[in-house]
Amino acid sequence: MLFWIFVFLLTRQSGLTQGHPDLLSRAATEASCDCTINSCRTLFDIVWGCLATIFACTWVALHQNVPDPDLGHFALLMRKLRMMLVTIIAPEIVVGFAARQFASARQFDVSRTHGFFCNMGGFVSEEGHPVSTEKQLPAYMPAIQKIKKADIEDKSKGDTLSKGVAIAQGLWFVTQCLARVSQQLPITELEVATLAFAVLSVAIRLLWLHKPLDVQQPIIVTRSEVDIDPLEEEDITPMNNDSNDFSHKIGGIFGNHDYYHPISSTSVPSFYSIEIDGKDPYGLVTLAGVFGVGTIFGSIHCAAWNALFPSMAEMWMWRISSVFIAAYPVLFTLSALISDVAIDNDIADTVLLICTGAGLVVYPICRLLLIILSFTTLRSLPPSAFVDVNWSNYIPHL
């Protein structure tokens, strides 16, 4: 409820700024003639603050799974850049990934940190294969339980304090936007887009608060009470988790790892989380949360509905893209539910397939348009956009 009130206030202040030229002229006078009293900000300040927040929301916030031990420095860099690109284009996918790992980490009879380490491929057998399935865990759990939580945390490149500082940075940006709304100062389209990243970043960081950061080398654990790896008894054709099959990669993003087999791998896939009892724990809750986050992400962009745009074309591109991103999760959820309960499954499945295809094509285009428009609209900002927040208004004084 508080979120929707905030979106309403953002929309209201955008329309207020656009519809009252006196407010613009007064802000322009303050910005150009009275900067010694009322602090101002430059275009560089706006861009730098937004880019720093976006970087913290994408690069710094990413807690990747343990990579293949043979990957070089350049390959590791490209691996993280690809994940960063996914986060920028569709951050709700990363939220879903974090939610799946968070839910799965709660299922083990160990600490949350141990659970995350299992999910990220942090424990490997003596042969170097990830201990990353429900069937493997009973044979290796006694050895995993003997490993101290502090030993796992020691492998992390970040601690709770550093993660807390990163969360505080996102919350600070949100606070600045709220303060601008309170003082009826306009928020640029770039700041609106950054605000959406900041809100999602807080969710990602909280979900991954106990997950080790940037672990490069796994921990070897030994089997107990059994002589062989339980997976070796299965008659399964090994498949490489680095398969170039596009459907496998798309399925992996959404939590489908049927193609993955640890006996033929030395690391888990990028979006991997352990399935319990043949399915994701709290699957429906996770799915609802992901789609809800996607709607929130698009709705925040809709808050700039009445903002000043340099052209009508840019205004309508922003509006259409924002509405699609906010509405698509709802449409996809409805089509999926209809496909499950419909009598004529062929028609329902066709609708679901069309909806999925539209999402794979249209959704990235809308996200790219919003990113591009966030920067192109900076060429024509109202003078009041350069007026900084007067924080003394929030300090009790006589």
Automatic annotation (TrEMBL):
The keyword ATP-binding does not apply. Residues 1-19 form the signal peptide. Keywords: Membrane, Signal, Transmembrane, Transmembrane helix. It comes from the Eukaryota. The keyword Ribosomal protein does not apply. The chain crosses the membrane at residues 43-62, 83-103, 282-304, 316-338, 350-373. This is Uncharacterized protein. It comes from Mycena metata. The lineage of its organism: Eukaryota, Fungi, Dikarya, Basidiomycota, Agaricomycotina.
